Amino acid sequence: MGKVTKIFVFILLMPVVMGFSQTRPGIKMGLNRSKISKTELDSKSGIYVGGFVHIPITDYYVLQPEVLYSRQGGNSNSNEYSDVNIDYISIGIPNKFYVRPNKGFHFIIGMGLDINIENNFVNLTNFNIDEEISPVDISILGGVGYEFGFGLILEARYKQGTISIDFLGEDNLYEEEGSNLNGVFQIGAAYKFKL
Questions:
Q1: 73-85: buried (b, 16+ CB within 10 Å) or exposed (e) per residue?
Q2: What does the alpha-carbon distance between residue 3 and residue 103 come to, in Å, rounded to a whole number?
Q3: Measured between alpha carbons, how far is 99 from 44 in angstroms, rounded to an integer?
Q4: Going from the N-terminus, what domains does the chain have, and what CATH number goes with each?
Q5: What is the pTM of this model?
């Protein structure tokens, strides 16, 4: 490899190396307010908790992969049916865009894969499911947040599911035609550690 080529490769890789050298892990937790569309269920309160990795790409953009436990579903308002509780492992890839370099107010946009803990693909394969709830959901999310200089982050975001949770389409909760989608408003706090 020639000297010019080595210099060119170094220049290309330098921002990536610098970004990963400033990578910081963190934890987050907060409250969910979830609702399943086109059902007779009321909204449900729950929690989310988990961890993330803060990967700065530029002064204004951060990639923040995360893994969360998220309790969602809907509350019954009738004696004819019970509450729907869905526990997910959520694997998300939020993108954060700062208004000022590296701190303060920011916008969040991203996607995620939600895996149903109880009715996952392993249980479906073994015919070991109790309810007719989809094993996965693909979600899109957006929100806003504020990051303090010492590592505390406050966030509010909305997560919209794209796959109907009514896996078999036979439950009497789902009286309206169309998909029964998860919708979750989340508000919470996070802290990123200094290494």
A1: bbeeeeeeeeebe
A2: 38
A3: 33
A4: 24-192 (2.40.160.20)
A5: 0.79
Among candidate residues 156, 173, 155, the one with its CA nearest the CA of residue 35: 173
Residue with tokens 């490899």: 1
Say if CB 53 and CB 32 are below 8 A apart: no
CB 62 within 8 A of CB 105: no
Sign (positive or negative) of CA dihedral 72, 152, 104, 24: negative
Residue by residue, DSSP assigns 90-138 as: EEEEEEEEEEETTEEEEEEEEEEEEEESSS-HHHHHTT--SS-B-SEEE
Which residues, at least 6 apart from 64, have a Cβ–Cβ distance to it below 8 Å? 52, 53, 54, 55, 93, 94, 95, 96
By C-alpha distance, which of 173, 112, 153 is closest to 26? 153
Q: What's the pLDDT tens digit per position in 156-177? A: 999 999 998 875 555 555 555 6
β-partners of residue 61 are: 97
